[in-house]
Amino acid sequence: MEFKSCSLIVPSVLEMTKDPNMVTVPSRYIQLEQDQLDEANIDLNSSSDDFPVINFENLSLPMSHHNSQLYQSELTKLDLACKNWGFFQLVNHGVSNSVVEKMKEEVKKLFELPIEEREKLWQWPGEVEGFGHTFVFNDQQKVNWKDDLFLFTLPHALRNPNLFPNLPSSLREILEIYSSDLAKLAKSIISQMEKVLGIENKEILRLVEFDGMQIINMINYPPCPQPEKVIGVKPHSDTVILTILLQANQVEGLQVKKDGKWVLVKPLPNAFIVNILTNGLYPSIEHRVVVNPKEERLSIATFLNPNLKYDIGPVSSLITPQNPPKYKTVTNKEYVKGTFSSEPDGKAYLDIMKFVIVPSVLEMTKDPNMVTVPSRYIQLEQDQDNVDLNSSSDDFPVINFQNLSLPISHNSQLYQSELTKLHLACKNWGFFQLVNHSVSNSVVEKMKEEVKKLFELPIEEREKLWQRPGEVEGFGHTFVFNDQQKVNWKDDLFLFILPHALRNPNLFPKLPSSLREILEIYSLELAKLAKSIISQMEKVLGLKNKEILRLVEFDGMQSINMINYPPCPQPEKVIGVKPHSDTVILTILLQANQVEGLQVKKDDKWVLVKPLPNAFIVNVGDIIEILTNGLYPSIEHRVVVNPKEERLSIATFLNPNLEYDIGPVSSLITQQNPPKYKTVTSKEYIKGVFSNEPDGKAYVDIMKLY
């Protein structure tokens, strides 16, 4: 199976610690933010009695004994362990002691192999499997204090033909038995969870019953001369269905977060430590590993993931009107790919899967007693003072599109001069105002009028257009992924508008009829205008064969965001839209009133844009930066809010047809100008965009090759 994970090769920590002169830790491994020294945040009073222990023998009684007090009592303990801890130790689990002991012995021998032998099992570039470190994506990233051997073990088809046959034969032999026994045990645990949850029809078990994916990670945490400065594994929750951990020696190190404190897990001999995913009823729990100053810690983590053909989402029998879905449903391929695309960090990936609905800012500001901003909206890190107050409207590029719309026979100075202005605007600013753009004033004014009326609708009417769980479209806030995330000071209505097949049948027909009618005209006019702008860009760049235009010429995607930035009693503490570059081809912005607020970053200063009447403000998106190989860069911009007046705007975003790839166009690539960006499919690109909050130029930076 292919994962687009480019885990970097990192030197062996185990070999590094063999140096008798080593007394300090290399800077790359120092992770002081892990509150190791904060004893107030570690529960030193917890005992082994506090941590749940499940006797699986009591859950393995024959069906005729399932009504017995012994069985029901153990089932209740399992329920409470999953609900309150997300972890438990499993004793009398049915895996024979001889298999467990042999597995421990082979892992110990594995890490005792000479480095020359272990190097034969080293990760290959671009692969996640093998000896090394998983989830290391760049040379600046801090690295955990461990070595591991990471393997796909089941189904057999997933095994790496360059790796599995090269394992020591005795390790290979026990892995066959151990992996099969743990797959069977995992299914039995899930079956008991389903019973206590009242789930029928194997709604969870079916995900793994046939060809569920199993991964085994054998981990060595070497002793460290400065254990307080490093971390074996940083805090995270596991992105799998179940993890079954076997400690291969009795050195402690695993800590579980419970009620805001870190609890040290004291492993029972030959017990498995199990941690658990439902609709939030059984939460996955953050855990970490700390290292020892004198002794290595050995562990074997077995991860169970679903068969790739199934979707991941809340099971239907747990969903009720009182308990609506709290998480999105995605294909398992999408889910697994996402988990292998970033370093485990807290519960970050699970937070991405959550549905989060944010209340209306517009309604909040109607309270006449409101004088302070709720803490969720305060974003003081926005450098409000770094504004270029001396810029004038003359500084900001203005393109007269009438001069670019002359007949082809007019190869005049007027046309060439305007083409040069367009080129310089794209190259030096990434933004320009577009006047005489051919979209009639009547269409522009009607669009403004309808957007104004939209935000004047009673809240009861706007709620009919509210975002539904798992959807980005509708009234609300786009790109809000968790309840802790800071929120921009705005309300918006986001819609996919073209091609027609993308329109949301639960949303578009519910729009006010007069808004729907003008949207039909406005969206077509702006699609036509966007193509004309791209055509002129291609001319000035000397591109032929419609290398950019072809991406949008037929069924290019268009979305529209109608935005209200309400007045704010503390405007210096909030942001309308935080600094970002647009991840699209082009954005065409129409201000629906003349209240200023858009600021563009130029030479590290924020320049206020003063909109011309009925002009469009056009900006180059990240995709144009990628297509032009950086010649036309996308530019960071933001929106600040007004203490007394609302600001209304209509942003139209142009994205490519999903059938095309996104990457530097071939005619701009030379030996002197090699590609600076990756090439990916449009589907991959757009999925990535909607998985993260816009933040600076973070997404285009991910696309860079160097």
From TrEMBL:
Keywords: Iron, Metal-binding, Oxidoreductase, Vitamin C. InterPro entries: DIOX_N, IPNS-like_FE2OG_OXY, IPNS-like_sf, Oxoglu/Fe-dep_dioxygenase_dom, Plant_2OG-oxidoreductases. Residues 209-306, 553-656 form the Fe2OG dioxygenase domain. GO terms for molecular function: L-ascorbic acid binding; metal ion binding; oxidoreductase activity. It comes from the Eukaryota. The keyword Iron applies. The keyword Oxidoreductase applies. Belongs to the iron/ascorbate-dependent oxidoreductase family. This is Fe2OG dioxygenase domain-containing protein. It comes from Cannabis sativa (Hemp).
